Amino acid sequence: MRARSGDAPLLGHLRGCHGRGSLHSAFTHALNLLTPDGRLMTLAAAGSDDAPWTLVVDAACFPALEAGQPVTFTPGTLDLG
In this predicted model, what pLDDT tens digit does every residue of 22-45 receive, in sequence order? Predict the structure, then answer.
């Protein structure tokens, strides 16, 4: 999936974000992630409104995921699982 829009402060933060975070909570249309430095951000499904610390992606919904799963952060990429 690809980001369609994002909060400018979050995008700036993610450019320098390296390491492992985790999936904080998962819903049909949103995933809340903890970044490696402990900040909470959201991946929101297509059609969602822009919001602070949120990336809106081109996915219509998210598969069943469980809290606690690892998320690897590298510049330009988030790897879930």
Answer: 999 999 999 999 999 999 999 999
Greatest CA separation found in the chain?
A: 29
- The sign one gets for the Cα dihedral 76, 36, 19, 78 is negative
What pairs with residue 71 in β-bridges?
21, 80
The pTM for the full model equals 0.92
Place of tokens 């469980």: 66
Strands (E) located in the chain: 3-6, 19-27, 30-34, 40-44, 54-57, 70-74, 77-80
- The single-letter code of the amino acid at 23 is L
37 vs 2: CA distance, rounded Å: 23
Give the 3-state secondary structure of residue 11.
Answer: helix
